[in-house]
Amino acid sequence: MSSENTASFAESATETFETFTEYATATANATGNETTTENITKSISLATPLLYLGVLIFTLITFSIYHRRTKVHQLQKLTSSSLFNPEYEIKAEDVLSANIDTPTIDSIPALIYSDLKELNAHEKMLKTSLVQRAAESMRRIIKLKETEPSIMILYTKGLIGDDSFKRYQMQVKLQDAEMMEIAKEAENYKQGWSRTIFPIAQEVMMNQALRRRINSINERKKIMENLTYKGVENVMDDIKARIDSIKINIVKK
Amino acid sequence: MSQSRYEYDENSETWPYFALTAILVPLIPSTISIISSLFKKSNKSHKSSFSPYNANYLQSFRNSQNRSKLFNLKTVLTIFGWILISGLLYIISNTETILSENHFDPWKILEISENATEKIIKTAYRKLSLKYHPDKVDTSSMTQEEIDSVDAAYVLINKAYKALTDETVRENFLKYGNPDGPVEIKHGIALPHFLIEGAFSPFLVVIYIAFIAIVLPLLVSNWWNGVKSTTKNGTHVTTADHFMKLLINASPTHVLLVDDIIKQVSHSVEYLNINTALTPDTVYNLIVSYINRETCKDENLRLNVVAITPKLLSSFLEIAAAFKNTDYCLKIVDAHRSIIQALNIEKDAKHFTFKEILQLPGVDVSKIDTNQSILTLGKLLKNKTVTPEKFLNKDKVDTIINYSKKIPIIEPIECKFKVPGEDHLPPMSAAHVSLKFLIKSPAHKGKPDFKSFKKDVINNQFKEEQSMDNLKDPMRVVNLQPNVELLSIPPYFPDTSYIEQNSGWIALLVSQRDNKIIEAPKILNKADLSNINLTQDEFMESKCNISTFKIQLSTPTPKEVGVYHFRLILRNLTYFGSDIDIPVVMNVEDKPIEKSKVDVYGIEDPDEDSIAGAMAQLRGESVKRVEFKNEYESSDDEDDEDNDDIVSWTDIDTDTEVEEDAVDSK
């Protein structure tokens, strides 16, 4: 039934095509100055439109595959260097071999956590490590929030490239995915922990930040001393003495 | 198609004009720019008697730079363009303009001059019509063609006569250039016929295809890639990305040093354009050895590396300012100056404390008497405890003294927020910071009494004219001032034209509350430098000119009425010791007040022997800030309301140990 139909359809199609070509040649003959009355009527086989369709679909598929691949490649290239710790470079082969289930492969606490998990470490250890991982994630999210207006300014002013901006946006997404991952892991240990782990992680984060600042005080002091005092003690002491004398004068007044 | 109605340019009448226009459009601007650059350069020549250790290399670097400026592709193309133009002009002058037969010129047809009287026209017409009348011409021995041409000639003569005498025909002629009324518009191709339809037509098609399919896409993609790979301020996107990452990760715990900045900037990909073998480490080593003033094996390479570094630093600065990171910005400016002066200010405390003296050409760190507390230029020139000869341990110090006298110093007179046309700051208004200042030499003591300024200086330069132009564009006053031109050029930096173009002060407006930059950095590069050459007496009698600097705020003043405190930080891009920090108060009020407030936070220079001066010396560059705090204390009596605010922010502002000392010592 259907084959008949198609056959008749094809027939009628060729017919119409023939009439059309006849008409075309007729008009050509009528209008053309040269009087070549060669009949160019030629029937076209059914394969032609199918071939056309085939070629079209093939090209579209090839293009889409190619396009997807380049897109993935571009994304990989974008994330190949970490946004947060420029000194720390992750090699792709290391990551692939370790089978890590974190979206942020440049986060050291996340790597430690997954390593511990692989080693079947004690649960307490794993929990602490997860809190650490959450704290690092929190720090990054806060950093990203903090720098968002600056990045927007830079991007709108054209002071950074498109890729840098895309990289930044991607990091925001990765960080969100990391949070989800942490929440999922937390839920595995104890139901409802995913709700309390983040406040705890925030406290840990604040504590770490404070510690970093306190620990740096001595170092800062040393650097400043080297820069402003060592070697020019005479001059500095002289100035200090003068300040002190003036201070005493003021107090006396 | 081939029987086209188009006319071709067979006699090459049109295409030379077309080509002439096409060439002249880009040629004239480029010629003007080349000529103006030639004039600009010839104006200046800075010669100093001091020659640095690498003087030969510096000289050859500068020479090659000048040469490359003069003999580059642009100049060659311009010269070639002018040769083409002369060729075209020659062609044009040699081609006779053959007007097409359609062109109608009644006077020519009648063989009379254009100012002929009616009588002459009539006689000429009669004479010609007699000659060409179809009945009068003997057509017996003529071919059909000849007969036709005679007929046509007679018709033309008639037409011409009518065009000059008949009213309506004349009007038609004047309006449309044809006695028959409007003519159809003709289209022509400014190419000869053979190029389009002859044997050469494939050639033309190839040219077209090459242009549209190859050259145009190449140009566009080139341009687009260029746009994509460089940022607005001309740095490579990779470099900008690197700077961005650095600032995202900027650690508040780390004491930022010039060394860190150099290390960070050495990762820029721009250095690879100089030499692809340059690694960040080698770049870093080259720059450090340059600021340490050490000799180097490959001096040329080093000079090339150093010459582009300040540009990278300025784009770094812009990115740092977008992150509102004041520490980074100030350190980048320090690094910039270190490179311009070839002075490693953080090598040790000696370099750091004596940096203002060490930047002077010919001063040797190993020779100066570091027991003398001559830390600033002012101290060296004015309140010297020992003679400069003794202090610098040199026989001839004249050139050094002269050099240092020409370093411009900012002496602020008034600094406040202003809204054009208002005498107070309404909420949500577009305000700008206005700084009125004097440029003085370090040798000038104190500052002239306000009353002693000349009247027209006060009226024109201090108080701005309330004209419509000034109110509409507050920046106009600033832009009308001359550019800052340095009178003494630092000898070490290879690219002198960079220094000349980028001399001035970088201005950062910082919030006192959290020490964050609130406005993108602006450069103060327009000021009147004439005061530098005044003698001390002239300076005090005040023959000085007042300069103005303004920063337009991009955000409106806050909604809430209140007092907001800011600090205007000015850092010289070239010299040490010409910096200043000025507190500015934004007093947002809702209702207009009758009497405009006198600027209670008047700014005065710290006297070198006063407590402020002493503290300033202790703290190095932040000379004026301490002074201002004193000012605030004295102003507290006058204005008790502001007392709390001031205390709160002066306490916050203790970034480093040294500054803490300074504050404590009060």
Automatic annotation (TrEMBL), chain A:
Biological classification of the source: Eukaryota, Fungi, Dikarya, Ascomycota, Saccharomycotina
Keyword Transmembrane helix: yes
A Gene Ontology term for the protein's cellular component: Sec62/Sec63 complex
Transmembrane intervals: 50-67
Protein name: Sec63 complex subunit
Database matches in Pfam families: Sec66 (PF09802)
Keywords of the record: Membrane, Transmembrane, Transmembrane helix
UniProt entry tagged with the keyword Chloroplast: no
Biological processes per GO annotation: post-translational protein targeting to membrane, translocation
From TrEMBL, chain B:
PANTHER family tied to this protein: SEC63 DOMAIN-CONTAINING (PTHR24075), TRANSLOCATION PROTEIN SEC63 HOMOLOG (PTHR24075:SF0)
GO biological process entries: post-translational protein targeting to endoplasmic reticulum membrane; SRP-dependent cotranslational protein targeting to membrane
GO molecular function: protein transmembrane transporter activity; RNA binding
The name this protein goes by in its record: Protein-transporting protein
Region annotation (Disordered) ranges: 627-666
Keywords: Membrane, Transmembrane, Transmembrane helix
InterPro entries assigned to the protein according to its UniProt record, in alphabetical order: DnaJ_domain, Ig_E-set, J_dom_sf
Residue ranges of the TM segments: 15-39, 71-92, 199-220
SMART domains linked: DnaJ
One cellular component (GO) term of this entry: Sec62/Sec63 complex
Keyword Transferase: no
Chain ranges of the J domain: 105-177
Bias (Acidic residues): 633-645, 652-666
